[in-house]
Amino acid sequence: MQAVGDSNCYVTEVRPDSDAATKGLRPGDQVESVNGVTLTRQDLSYVEYGYRIFPQSGLHLVVRSPDGSQKTIVAMAKVLPGQPLIRHSDQMTWMRNHAHDVARDRSRYHREGNVLFWKLPDFLMEPADMEESLNKTHSLGSVVLDLRGNPGGNVTALVKLVGGFFTHDVRIGDRKTRRDSVPQIAKTRGGKAFGGKLIVLVDGRSSSAAEIFARVVQLEKRGVVLGDRSAGAVMEAQFFPDAVSLSPTTMSPYGATITEAALVMSDGGTLEKVGVTPEERIVPTPADLAEGRDPVLARAAELVGLKMTVQEAGKVFPFEWPKEQMPEID
Q: Which one of 30, 56, 252, 329 is at 20 to 30 Å from 280 when CA atoms are compared?
């Protein structure tokens, strides 16, 4: 996705064994419409939400290739069979196991000389895991923190991350609810805080804690933010699970996500529906996406004194497909 004024949406990855790949969908293709609905940056989140709520057997896509040619693709979904019956005990066991799984640090690291490239995929991690990751930065000269595609996560992880990059306590902003307003303060790690050069990468999929961190870096003049305008989705929400009993041993789970608070940054502004505008707006072209090049990471490397081509940058954090699995319980 591109920044303010540019509503075009592009394919970034296509699973090799998918029906879409077989029918010619490729990275770099611009998606003009989905099931007859014109696709724009502003509406993408609603399209994704609708698909998750009502999974479909396929999608009717109108796309435009990097060479300018237009094509229509009907990409069929892949059905993964799961267990036919889920009992209440199964659901509770899966939720406990799933919660344990998402609390792991799934960061990726790449080090060249005195520079650490850190790909942080989300903030769904325990403070102890964040502390361990921050320990990797302490003795280095530069850190490139890649928050592209990061949807956010736990506030505690955000606070810990902010404290790891500042030698003083930082006021992130004020958490405002209907009842009160409470300052959010990140305590510094003191002598363990990273004091070198900091580059932060964001894009249109960086939201919540990811874009809050980037904005704090800008407001405190702590580093440089590169990439595309962030998502502008920072409202704090909580998921409330519930279930309908179908029989003494079976259930149908459901839930609702309710907004609880808004965050006002230290400058009095808000990021909701605004996002973070990088100091340097760098967006991969359709050709970059098609060839696996990464001009954003290459520019970050240049700013910290490294020579890295856009082709080499594209290989630092290659895309990893999530495992295909269903939440089954033995």
A: 30
Tens of each residue's pLDDT in the chain, 330 residues: 344 446 789 999 999 989 999 999 999 999 999 999 888 887 877 888 888 778 889 999 999 999 999 999 999 998 777 666 666 677 667 666 665 555 567 899 999 999 999 999 999 988 889 999 999 998 899 999 999 999 999 899 999 999 999 999 999 999 998 889 999 999 999 999 999 999 999 999 999 999 999 999 999 999 999 999 999 999 887 778 787 887 777 777 778 878 888 999 999 999 999 999 999 999 999 999 999 999 999 999 999 999 999 999 999 999 988 775 555 544
Does residue 53 share a domain with residue 115? no
Backbone phi and psi for residue 63, each to the nearest 5 degrees, phi listed first = -125, 160
Instruction: Answer yes or no: do 46 and 174 share one domain.
Output: no
DSSP letters of 88-147?
A: HHHHHHHHHHHHHHHTS---EEEEETTEEEEE---B-S-HHHHHHHHHTTTT-SEEEEE-
Q: Look at residue 324 and tell me if it is in a domain.
A: no
Whether this prediction's pTM lies above 0.90 is answered by: no
- Assign residue 65 the CATH number of its domain: 2.30.42.10
CATH code for the domain of 110: 3.90.226.10
Give the separation between CA 106 and CA 137, rounded to whole angstroms. 16
* 68 and 113 inside one domain: no
Instruction: Note down the domain range covering 306.
Output: 106-313
Same domain, 122 and 271: yes
Asked if residue 138 and residue 220 are part of one domain, the reply reads yes
Q: Edge-to-edge, what's the strand order for the sheet holding 170-176?
A: 181-186, 170-176, 251-265, 236-245
Contact predicate 276/230, CB 8 Å:
yes
